[in-house]
Recover the amino acids of this structure.
């Protein structure tokens, strides 16, 4: 049976043991869902009350692990946040199912901070412990989906300020894009675009992933338009540990628009190793 450790004060009459800290094994509900908001900070999981101090999930605070089906939200898009797993000797035979529900990666580590792997946004990993070592299976190649909606303000600045679609996946990992689906709602007011001003999906830093997403007839109609794009027909150079973003690849920003306008972008992708594997 799965269990967790709880410390308590010895209440016996023996003066030699009264007041000392003991640990007892109590049942832990298998498959119990646990929601963990990381609040853009490190979270340390424990199966022992008071070790480390704190029983509430939060920035740099330990959280008492009461279930093994973890839905972890690192919060906003940005650098990956560290999730430290409990002490190995407290987790013999334990399996954790970890789902990333947030907008950035989760850098899973053992209790001493040793790296196990990074679970990307919307990704999933399985952690297994034999009592001495944690192992993390990231199920390479699974198809993930990321949804992003650009506001009108973002659309009008997207040439100089690209918008992240998929956050960086972590060290020694890369993102492969399979397909992009876009819905532009310019019902509030059509955008204007120069002849060379098209949208494009790229790795942050400038490596192209998609072909030009033609804006004529798409963002300038004053209505709702839909488009789907694959990746370049030629080879795509996978760039390790960088975000995937959308931007205006022309010489100027879009004009026109309306505060009510949006551009919704759905991306199908996978994360893979960028180091030699067998």
């Amino acid at each position: 049976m799965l269990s967790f450790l709880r410390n308590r004060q010895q209440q016996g009459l023996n003066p030699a043991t009264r007041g000392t800290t003991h640990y007892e094994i109590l049942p832990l509900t298998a498959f119990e869902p646990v929601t963990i908001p990381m609040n853009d900070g490190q979270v340390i999981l424990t199966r022992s009350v008071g070790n480390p101090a704190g029983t509430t999930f939060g920035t740099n605070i330990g959280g008492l692990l009461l279930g093994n089906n973890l839905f972890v939200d690192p919060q906003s898009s940005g650098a990956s946040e560290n999730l430290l797993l409990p002490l190995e000797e407290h987790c013999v035979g334990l399996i954790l199912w970890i789902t990333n529900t947030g907008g950035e990666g989760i850098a899973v580590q053992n209790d001493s901070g040793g790296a196990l792997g990074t679970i990307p946004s919307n990704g999933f990993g399985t952690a297994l412990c034999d009592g001495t070592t944690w192992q993390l299976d990231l199920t390479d190649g699974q198809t993930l989906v990321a949804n992003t909606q650009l506001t009108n303000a973002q659309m009008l600045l997207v040439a100089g300020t690209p918008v992240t679609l998929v956050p960086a996946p972590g060290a020694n990992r890369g993102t492969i894009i399979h397909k992009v689906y876009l819905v532009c709602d310019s019902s509030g007011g059509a955008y204007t675009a120069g002849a060379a001003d098209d949208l494009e999906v790229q790795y942050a830093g400038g490596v192209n992933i998609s072909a030009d997403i033609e804006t004529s007839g798409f963002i300038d109609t004053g209505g709702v338009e839909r488009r789907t794009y694959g990746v370049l027909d030629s080879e795509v150079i996978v760039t390790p540990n960088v975000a995937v973003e959308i931007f205006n690849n022309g010489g100027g920003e879009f004009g026109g628009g309306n505060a009510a306008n949006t551009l919704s972008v759905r991306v199908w992708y996978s994360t893979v190793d960028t180091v030699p594997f067998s």
Observations:
- The domain at 144-273 is CATH 2.60.120 (Jelly Rolls).
- The chain has one helix and 22 strands.
- The radius of gyration is 24 Å.
- Confidence is low (pLDDT under 50) at residues 1-27, 51-60.
